[in-house]
Design brief:
Elements: E1 3-10, H1 16-25, E2 30-34, H2 47-52, H3 54-72, H4 88-113, E3 116-119, E4 121-125, E5 129-133, E6 139-149, E7 153-155, E8 168-169, H5 171-174, E9 183-187, H6 191-202, E10 206-211, H7 222-234, E11 238-241, E12 244-251, E13 254-261, E14 264-270, E15 272-275, E16 279-281, E17 314-316, H8 327-341, E18 355-357, E19 362-367, H9 370-376, E20 380-386, H10 391-395, E21 402-408, E22 414-421, H11 424-436, H12 441-446, H13 456-464
Parallel strand pairs: 1-2, 1-6, 2-3, 6-17, 8-15, 9-10, 9-15, 10-11
Antiparallel strand pairs: 4-5, 5-6, 7-16, 12-13, 13-14, 18-19, 19-22, 20-21, 21-22
Helix pairs in contact: 1-4, 1-8, 3-4, 3-6
């Protein structure tokens, strides 16, 4: 007879492991099933985010930023360093050490909270039973009153540019390049393409990004996107918009790309190619045919506003369901579902989930863009403020970008806050808090912000909504 739990979570990424820990905190007997294998061949908790996504990419971004600063930013401070070099084994090794620290940390959290981990691929069977297939093919079943599906997502592979792990890479492969490629091609100017393109560009690679859409960062506010694109191009990132890849062939240790844009057909030869055209929900082998759980037209698990699938006791969270594919969104859904299962008041507001791109300058936003508000017919007013007028940013020699605040024209309620500049990944939190509490631009404008800080740009942008910013002409 299979072991019985109150909650089984399938998937130990940021949605799944958080759901498991919160369920256990609430006194529910909890199991978490995951099949991710680390570099050492052992189970590695944390999913894509901790193993080959958020955490390792930020480690490489920070390391590459240190190197880039030596050559490009420190001279302005009167500091010079000659013959700076990058030891790639240490560069990649530091990233691997950080990954191991955090994936191991989840194991310790499971132990501390009495979550039972299972290593293998989980499949939901009828009656809330989960079949676990181990790496050796062995099978076992466990069951629960509630099952939370947190299977995550995988990179989208192009049929004419299939991943080979050597020349044509997904996000995982681009984190483990053992020497700086002279020429790196990137397909897709989204979060992954821009971040990993920035890593290798800073180390000296000639990076060309091909983006099929005509607009740069179409999901972001276009005032912010324009500033970002201009700065990336100053950093020698080549960004080609409206460029659709048609073929990628490996010839003589190079990748020959064919693409089309408004000017016709072109060829581009690179040493490595990163394909970062998006991710799709990972549901292969997750559901037995008779579970009753349904998928939508994009292969995502259908859920209601409480992340329930409509099948008694079966829930789904994270990248496998609707909403932005962001780790923190998945984590909050995991917490909310655990609390709903325990009979408490869970909460997740998809309208205030912040987005962040960890380039230099950073890009962050929450809420609606101007374009979205125009399409919805919602009246609004806008205030903005440049980091060039912020003393702290100038002192840091990072006076690039701006904060833009959008409020309802009649009620003044915050509808969206958009930023590009230094440290905006942290600054966006203030806007999210204000929006969660149904705050107004006036609320942000009346809060005292410390001087000199970067956060003053948020204050002044809020003042600018009503044309009363102090340190710029309105």
């Amino acid at each position: 007879m299979s072991e019985k739990f109150d909650v089984i979570v399938i998937g130990a990424g940021p949605a799944g492991y958080v759901a498991a820990i919160r369920a256990a905190q609430l006194g529910l007997k909890t199991a978490c099933v995951d099949a991710f294998v680390g570099k050492d061949g052992k189970q590695a908790l944390g999913g894509t985010c901790l193993n080959v996504g958020c955490i390792p990419s930020k480690a490489l971004l920070d390391s590459s930023k240190q190197y880039y600063n030596l050559a490009h930013n420190l001279p302005a401070h009167g500091i010079s360093v000659e013959n700076a070099k990058v030891d790639m084994s240490t560069f990649i090794g530091r990233k691997d050490k950080i990954v191991k620290q955090f994936t191991g940390g989840i194991g310790q959290l499971f132990k501390a909270n009495k979550v039972t981990p299972f290593f293998g691929k989980g499949k939901l069977l009828k009656g809330n039973t989960v079949e676990i297939t181990g790496s050796d093919g062995s099978k076992q079943t466990i069951s629960a009153t509630n099952v939370i599906l947190a299977s995550g997502s995988v990179p989208i592979e192009l049929p004419f540019a299939k991943f080979d792990g050597k020349y044509i890479l997904d996000n995982a492969g681009a984190l483990d390049i053992n020497e700086v490629p002279k020429r790196l091609g990137v397909i897709g100017a989204g979060v992954i393409g821009l971040e990993l393109g920035s890593v290798w560009n800073r180390l000296g690679s000639q990076v060309t990004i091909l983006e099929a859409l005509p607009d740069f960062l179409s999901v972001a506010d276009q005032d912010i996107a324009k500033v970002a694109k201009k700065e990336f191009e100053k950093q020698n990132l080549t960004i080609k918009l409206g460029a659709k890849l048609t073929k990628a062939e490996i010839k003589k240790n190079e990748v020959v790309l064919s693409y089309e844009d408004k000017d016709g057909a072109h060829d581009l030869t690179v040493d490595k190619l990163l394909v970062a055209v998006g991710r799709r929900a990972y549901t292969e082998g997750l559901l037995a045919a008779d579970t009753g759980v349904q998928l939508d037209e994009r292969g995502r698990i259908k859920v209601d506003e409480h992340n329930h699938t409509g099948v008694d006791g079966v829930w789904a969270v994270g990248d496998a369901v609707r909403g932005p594919m962001l780790a923190h969104k998945g984590s909050e859904e995991g917490v909310a579902v655990a609390e709903w299962i325990a009979g408490k008041a869970g909460h997740i507001n998809l309208d205030t989930v912040p987005w962040v791109i960890y380039t230099e300058p950073e890009i962050a936003w929450a809420g609606k863009t101007e374009k979205e508000l125009k399409e919805l017919g919602i009246p609004y007013k806008v205030g903005s403020f440049p980091f060039a007028a912020i003393g702290r940013a100038v002192a840091m020699n990072e006076a690039i970008g701006q904060v833009k605040v959008i409020a309802h024209a009649e009620t003044d309620r915050l509808l969206g806050v958009h930023m590009v500049g230094p440290g905006v990944s942290e600054l966006i939190a203030e806007a999210v808090v204000a929006m969660e509490f149904k705050g107004s631009a006036e609320d942000l404008a009346r809060i005292v912000h410390a001087h000199p800080t970067l956060s003053e740009a948020v204050h002044e942008a809020a003042l600018s909504v009503d044309k009363r910013a102090i340190h710029k002409g309105n």
